[in-house]
Batch of 3 targets.
Target 1
Amino acid sequence: MHETESKGLPVIESAFAGLWAGYGLAVPVGAVAVLMVNMTAQTSFRIGASAALGATTADVIYAVIAVSGGATVAGAVQPFSTPLRWIAFSILTFMAVRIFVTALRRRSAVGLGERQGERMRPLRSYTMFLGLTALNPWPTIYFVALILGRQAQGRMSVTDSVVYVLAIAVASASWQLLLAGGGAMFGRLLTGTRGRVITAMASSVLILALGVSMVLGH
């Protein structure tokens, strides 16, 4: 009984960590999110949901790459676990600050829906936002920093890795679909200056909390 509980706890922790990581990456309303909301406002929730799933697919691909790469070097980096955690913390802190500062500097967004509008189809929407999200190298840095930080605390099992990636997928998909629904219901509300600052602040807090827990959790 005790053994079963001890095995289940890391899986639960991996699920929560994956959700936390997924929301930390997805929550900032950046350029791709602005395009998604604007396009959904101009078309339909079906089109916006396809775009959301495309963006989620790119996030999951990056997470899988990071998990696979992190697992192969886990043994090699174990002797350097303490400096590795601090490096990861520094990267995450830089990202949190960058997200917030970028949100403060933005003043306008490019509208995609006006040009694509009636010609947009679900498959085209999916592939377009998969490509747009995949072109952004930031998720790679983000997930690699998180995965290496977790590997430094202890080797992730296959089950933990799968649960972690699935949780990231759930977090990313739920937020992207929420944005698409927001585009259908509230139009440009989330893409305004105030909406960007609020979402950037929330994401910055999540990322900083991930970094702090990584350093203090060992």
Target 2
Amino acid sequence: MTPRPPRPLTAAAAGELQRLIGTEPAPGLSERELDAVEARYGFRFAADHRVFLGAGLPLGGRWPDWRDGDPAVLREMLDWPVEGTLFDVEHNSFWYPRWGDRPAATAAAVEAARAHLAGVPQLVPVYGHRYLPGTPGRFGHPVLSVYQTDIIDYGADLTDYVRREFAGLPAQLDHADVTVEFWTYVYRENNGLPTDGF
């Protein structure tokens, strides 16, 4: 496989991805609706995620319903990566070295970690526990499967993810590294990769 730089997802390509999912999507979210979701929940969609949701809104199963979904369920999905990380800070001694020295008291360590995580780009649910970093204007992020600090990639980008997860097609891209510093560290540590520089 030849590596290539990430390319923007077009509306036409997003429509093709929607067909691979196997269920009829609801009409896509308008720019106004996408902006309203971001404002309501305090995050930003990555550029390719916005294009994908604009082409159609997959519903049912583990897809987040950004138009009519239960706000408590959507909030829980959004909070999942941070809450899982905090669980590992409390129960499994996880600590990100760039946060400085870990407080001796567990409760203080959890509160310090929570404060640090408030400044980390939000992971936004794509499907169940599959997430994309919420970085506005950016595309080409790997799709991550997140369970506490057990993070693995499920696709080198959104296109690769949908093709693999829903159509059983082989990967078309070489592995792409995680594109947000903190989540890069967690991903690399979990997968036995060097964490120098993260």
Target 3
Amino acid sequence: MMKSGIVEHCFWAGKNVFLTGHTGFKGSWLSIWLQSMGARVTGYSLTPPTTPSLFELGNVEKILVESIIGDVTNLEMLRRSMQKANPDVIIHMAAQPLVRKSYEDPVQTYQTNVMGTVNVMEAARTCNSVRVILNVTTDKCYENQEWHWGYRESEPLGGFDPYSSSKACSELITSAYRRSFLESMNVRVATARAGNVIGGGDWAEDRLIPDLMRALTSGEQIQIRNPDAIRPWQHVLEPLSGYLLLCQQLYLVGEEYAQAWNFGPQENDARSVEWIVNQMISKWSSEHPGYQVIKQDYKHEANMLKLDCSKAMQELNWTPRWTLDRALDATIQWLEEYLKGRDIIELCKHQLAEYEAESSLSLRSFRMDL
């Protein structure tokens, strides 16, 4: 099967997709993308985690087959909802996604990220329609050694904080269910580990880009904790394209893709927090008072984190299409258009169209160079 490197609309048209975490930032973007390709999406999630939220501003509920407000820790409700949806593909994104919040509520973090994964796999075992399951975890599932090179999928799992540890557990659970139950049912199961995502519509607390957005729009000085921390920043559409490509290959080709996969930016786009802040301020359309470094109660966060995505590039023909500078431009553009009152779904679909068009041009250029 030829690996096109392009998300194929014809593949997704008519597919039943069960998406957990659909009310979140990444989940809302993925819901919009799937619906634009003709997929029939059933969402299952808690209420939107922020106010405002991309999900509510875009009225994303209206473009779905059904939007179910439910908790992945509720196995019976999850099972009934999944059986009703009769999915071809399950994409599991529901999570407690914040490192610092995991220090404040480790029990809830483990309940959601560990038992939530168990419940998704258990519910899937009762659905004969399921062909593919993708569990979206994180780049923080690796045992961080503060290396200056990227982690590969074969590196040891671990986690200093409850969030990172819970996602490493989620990876192990997925592997166990794949081998113990789902392989024999001809269900292809993979995990995806993405870097730090940015983009329009993210209002999460205690996260750099949303904090920057709030400070830019209010004219207040930006406060940052770890200016030298380096992360693999990427636009939200980059890992989402990887998830969709991976699901295509799992469905069309099969078990050889049932593995863990990294989706991150090019190496030179792993940048420091301070670099990101300075770039965003310089791109903003009006004067801004800058930033200050603040000292808070010490909670350990990794200082250096990079991903090696060579496997996805070679085996899926996936590659980052937008540079970090382009991703920051798209994020600023989204915010400016939102502040002008533009229709949210229209705005997201416009950026999706730009991304897909530029992806096609980029891939054709890459093949010509070969």
